[in-house]
């Protein structure tokens, strides 16, 4: 089992939902974690909440993954504070759903720029730091990255692309001692698409489940790499 204490991590979109759940799990292992949000206030509030039960240190950063310069600034902030970067989780994402004849161009661009190009910016800005420590790069794709559905043209395109992108990056970076995995969840109890988590979400994957999965992968012997993991609720309600 890998010792994770005092490693450092950067999580995009870590102020709530899946990113927050992953941050909680890493901090409980003694990992120092930087989380990003497009709002500095949201990042600060999440960091303050996460710090209450954390073994590691936590840092909140304002950033938009659609900006390569923002991503570089975040990586530099991590290196300035902790001197290294071991783990990067490209989690930030969003969805706009409409029939293709009604899909607005700006909505299409926002989905692709956030879910796909934003991940490219995240790894591009952090790869040299990860090479120094033989780090781990995660992307959070979706079951929508292999399963298409009506009104999902933008989201499907972004997640199909992200799944393929991550697998290619895995082949590129494993020669540098960097492990790369994409996690592809189904229904998760988060704030995605303006949903408010509630008691009716009991059957869904919970954010802490996602956090445990990332910890399990980090603790696995690095000679073995689960590169693409599909995750779904085990007992969804009958339709």
Automatic annotation (TrEMBL):
A UniProt-annotated Pfam family? adh_short
Which branch of life, at top level?
Bacteria
Q: Which GO terms describe its biological process?
A: monocarboxylic acid metabolic process
SUPFAM superfamilies, A to Z: NAD(P)-binding Rossmann-fold domains
Gene3D superfamilies to which the protein is assigned, alphabetical: NAD(P)-binding Rossmann-like Domain
- InterPro entries with a match to the protein in the record: NAD(P)-bd_dom_sf (IPR036291), Sc_DH/Rdtase_CS (IPR020904), SDR (IPR050259), SDR_fam (IPR002347)
Q: Which family does it belong to?
A: Belongs to the short-chain dehydrogenases/reductases (SDR) family.
The protein's name is NADP-dependent 3-hydroxy acid dehydrogenase YdfG
Q: Which organism is it from?
A: Marivirga sericea
